[in-house]
Amino acid sequence: MVLRLLMRYFANNEQLIQRMADSYPMRRAAQLVVSLMYRSKSLAREQGLHEMTPERFKSFVNMFKNNIKQELEGVKQELKDKKK
């Protein structure tokens, strides 16, 4: 309850919000987010992911799921072998 009141006070305190927005950590975090966004966008264009059809996306997701399952099973098998 007290935490909720404090958070509401901080969210409605315009001077505090402005000071936080002008701080170096907040500006740096915003720069990193924008940088990651542009990098992922260019990477998607290079790999042709921006022109992905729904069917191609589904096959990509299924392939990803299968790879994850195979890796998990491999790790489980390795753990079983270590215990023996």
TrEMBL record:
Domain of life of the organism encoding this protein: Eukaryota
PANTHER family registered for this protein in UniProt: PROTEIN NCBP2AS2 (PTHR41161:SF1)
Name assigned to this protein: Protein NCBP2AS2 homolog
The species this protein was found in: Drosophila hydei (Fruit fly)
Lineage: Eukaryota, Metazoa, Ecdysozoa, Arthropoda, Hexapoda
Annotated gene: LOC111605215
